[in-house]
Amino acid sequence: MIRFLAVSALLVLVAAGCQMKAPLPPPTPAPAPELTLAERAENAWRAGDMVASETLYSRLIEEGALSREALATAWERYVFSALANGHQHAALQSMDAFRAAAPGGAEYEPWQEAYRRALQGVGDTGAKQQHATRIVEDASLPPLLRARAGAILAGYYWRTADLQAALGVLQDLAAEFPARGKDFQAALERGLFDEVASVDESNLDAMGFLIPPTEQDEFPYTIIELERARRLAQTPGGMMQARQIVARIKPLLADASLADRVFMVEAPDFAGIDGLALALPLSGPFKSIGWKIMQGANLAQAELASMGYDVAVEGLNTDSADWVQKVRELPSNYRIVGGPLRLSEVSQLQDSGLLQSRAFFTFLNSTGELSEGYDAWRFFSSPQDQVLSLIDFATGRYGVRQVAVLYPDEPFGRRMGELFSEEARNRGIEITAMRTYPPKDQSGWYDIVGQLAATASFDAVFLPGDWEHAKMLVPNFLYHKRGDALVLGPALWAQTLSRQSYVVENDFRRTVFPGAWWPGNATPAARSLTTLAAQRDVDVDFWVALGFDFVRFANAFGTLPEAWTAQDVNARLQEAAQVINWAEAPITWGPQGVAQQDLFLFRPTMQGFTLYNEMPGAVPETEERAFGPRTRDPGPILP
Q1: Rounded to whole angstroms, how far apart are CA atoms 471 and 452?
Q2: For 315-327, how does the pLDDT look when each residue is reduced to its tens digit (9 = 90+)?
Q3: Is residue 188 within 8 Å of 196, Cβ to Cβ?
Q4: Are 126 and 120 in contact (CB under 8 A)?
Q5: Which pTM value belongs to this model?
Q6: Given this model, what pLDDT does residue 123 score?
Q7: Burial of residue 450, with CB atoms counted within 10 A of its CB: 0-12 exposed, 13-18 middle, 19 or more buried
């Protein structure tokens, strides 16, 4: 007990007056060992820091003392880091060392991929040409690598306009297909398709011309056509033609999936239509025109069928007394009718009750007494289209500010003369004289032209008479020392000139007239029309092209809803006009459904007529553009 009390007292005294010592701090950990260069390089690689990775692996390789496996890894990561940083030249310079260290050497797939990427990424320099050539010519290297390098080498030659060298490389490699197999050809196709995307249009076309016709279903022509399709698919109005090219080329490819890459932003197929009708004169004095339009329609059916569209075309003879009733009896979903071709037939529709159930597109320069854009629509150029194309040309190309009008004293000439004068004045052009001449009495024409030349100041003269008049009148301007005047004529001239056997070409060097069809048109649709027509022994002219374009246009326009309105039609028109690629001069429609055709401009020649800018020995004027239809602002890219 005494001992217990003593201990307790001692504890009380300690608690009351004694300070306890603070606990000792924990021991400081030893510093972490510094990372080795190999570890820092690996950390940068794994973190995706390609700049640090390239630098660190470069130092690691320089230091040496790496095992064979570590050296292979170091070269691989260095090269791919350099590629990620855009240092293709550094990667190219390292390929031999990478190959020597890589397991399997040239058979090592990462080495092949790195070499391909380095070649593809470096600019069109001597280094690209030398490395690619070395690979292509080394038969000991893997075939797929040689194929990919061959495509890159061909692309280099192609872009630098050495087309024969490009074609030679591709043909040499293509000759190895039987021995190398389908994978070899597929690699070539993929590589070349990547390369041609950066080839300009002129070199792309020029290469196509070098390939013999007997090889135009083979590589590399298949890839050239595929690239054309890709460019068309990105052009307003080109999607339909692109789909047709792809449908033809796809079965010929070793890698059919390339065809899907043509459509970078895939849009759904437009639904098309089941059928439509054409109201045309198929007997009587105008039957030749009606049947030409039907021929063009049949060619369009063939083109659409190759693309998977089954479009029925019903021909209705407007020379039959019951043609209006035949329209009424059409299937209810045949809501688009092309035609009629004469105003007398248009007038029969006014009280027929059909204007609310069918959308009629007349093949006339007006819709007569029907309201355009409400009762009916126009699929044809108007006199105003002709006049505006001439005025825009005269003012834009030649700076014309004063014009004289000399027209035959008859209704057509008078109407055209008055329309031209009105539109010219609206654009600030001065009409310095309006004179008439007797259309059937040529004896006074020389004096009439002489009086006009002596009394009026003009830069251009508008002659709205027919071609037989122009043949006599235009030389008279030369005789009266006004050969410097620009002569403007109507589209009417094309009908005669297409059959003309002789033209004094030099007299008409400064003569221009508009038209909707040009046999030399190079649009994909015009080429397709020409090809299809040749296969069926059809002679193509304006009327055939009209039928061809109308059926294709109607299919793109689509089936109208059962309770459609004029506003529905007008809304669709602007979209459908951009969908198709035109064989004729393109037509557009304004918001109110009024059509406008962007006409070609021609000059009379010994062969009939040609585009105005194709003038041998012509003196250049203020600009040198092709006077075909103008390029419009791009619209939506639709199928």
Answers
A1: 18
A2: 999 999 999 999 9
A3: no
A4: no
A5: 0.60
A6: 80
A7: middle
